[in-house]
Amino acid sequence: MPVNAPAEYFKAENKFHSAKTREDKIAALEEMIRLLPKHHGSEQMHAQLKSKLAKLKKEVPAKKGFSKKGVAKEGEAQVCLVGLTNSGKSSLIATLTEAKPQVSHHPYTTTKPEVGMMDYKGVKVQLVEIPSTFDSQHMSIVRSADAVAIVAKEGPDLQQLKKILDDNFVRTKSVAVNPWSEKTAEIKEKIWRLLGLIVVYSKKTGTSMALPRGATVHDFAQRIHKDFVSNFRFARLFRGGMTKQVGLEYILEDGDVVEIHTK
Fold first, then answer.
1. Alpha carbon distance 247, 249 (integer Å)
2. What is the reported pLDDT for 105?
């Protein structure tokens, strides 16, 4: 038994023993590993848990008849929309993307993940609507996403959804959005800010690129092609009405336009 393990560890351990699907067992094990204190006395326990986790992950695709209902990531980031039935998730993904999910006043209309691409200043962000049944396979998609948009009004619904995410060991960063009171543009901005990305443009092609906040000219050049880094001379930066010559370590800001000059 682990020494000085927090109560959350035993909650995850109980969930592991009661889990009926591999996805739930994997999620519980990952949570146990995260919560187990790291010291000399727990090294053996850590090794046992990691070994058990590796074995489970290896068995998932090998199980006959197993169909993993995952969603391949596309675009610059993947964001899951999570909400209770009739919360407006389907209408929201239809508004933010070109997806055409079935929209109905009847509960549990969405039975499988619905996918669409949201455009933000030329950058594509993948949105995935998660069915309100919160199946273990669907929740595994939420755990691996870059961010979660919780579709709910303030109050009991939002608290219930936060508990569902916590019970399923979802540690992905999240933000609450309310399509009933917030404008579409506001929701789009909320999602983008949550991702912690900036949009930078190429002066030569006019195309946009998403980079993490704090990214440098080096990161921008590397994304285009590694030769732009090895043959780099300088970059010309356009920001508002300002133009300046900068080097590889210069930190970029949202909306910057960059022109790379090579040897």
1. 6
2. 64
